[in-house]
Amino acid sequence: MTAGTAAKKGLFFLLVAAIVLYAVFPFYYAILSSLKSGTELFRVDYFPLAWNFDNYVSVFRDNPFATNIWNSVLVAFSTVALSLFVGLTAAYALARIRFRGRGLLLMAVLGVSMFPQVAVLSGMYQLIRFLGLYNRLPALILSYMIFTLPFTVWVLTTFMRDLPKELEEAAILDGASPWRILTRVFMPLMWPALITTGLLAFIAAWNEFLFALTFTIDNNMRTVPVGIGLMSGASSHEIPWGNIMAASVIVTLPLVVLVLVFQRRIVSGLTAGAVKG
Q1: Range of 40's domain?
Q2: How far is the CA of 44 from the CAs of 24, 152, 203, in angstroms?
Q3: Would residue 277 count as lying in a domain?
Q4: Are residues 123 and 246 in the same domain?
Q5: Which of the chain's ends, N or C, has fewer CB atoms near its CB within 10 Å?
Q6: pTM score, two decimals?
Q7: pLDDT, tens digit, 9 for 90 and up, residues 155-193
Q8: Residue 25 sits in the same domain as residue 136
């Protein structure tokens, strides 16, 4: 190995270390802060000097945080299930069925995702009130489909276009219906794309704040981002930073675990179609 190659390799690893430090350190410091209380929160420490779990106990004791977590789990999984079902069926139609205006429809689906949430907030509020869903979890599921469904449809359509046509033609010759072709032929080949889009939709729904704050008013109907945002001292006007850090760690851990478990599938889904042979 030459000196130039060694230097490039060293710079590469240094860059990777800097990126990892930049990405991981805030979460690491949140864990350290969640183990502190009182004036210790304002002392800068880079290693845990004590293991105090009072903040974690207080989060569940003083707030309906367990209910907030359950609401987030229910809303996020329901949003992912509906997005994947609608996205998969729409992708089959857009990728495999020829009809007039197919390209325009696909561009319209992508264009919907370009609108910021605040631009559609008032319209969604009126729709949810009209449907009688205000302060109910279905209101969040319906509103979250606005930003999860366009991405899901676009990614799955692109992935499905790359699947061999011979598979579909062979299934048609065997008398398979479109639904059977979709579920028995295409779905087993699309698991990387389904897991990738599903996980990204789950993260978006899990972290969403604006719609959850606007369309719910009862603490028992709120999700974890709103529950954390509305945490405040009941007996004093001090902000309970320790509780907030503990709650943040609790709601971040499931996302970290999901990414670690499905990391290979995620990479496969993101790189699918990048190289054609």
Answers
A1: 1-52
A2: 17, 42, 30
A3: no
A4: yes
A5: C
A6: 0.84
A7: 898 888 888 888 888 888 888 888 888 888 888 888 888
A8: no
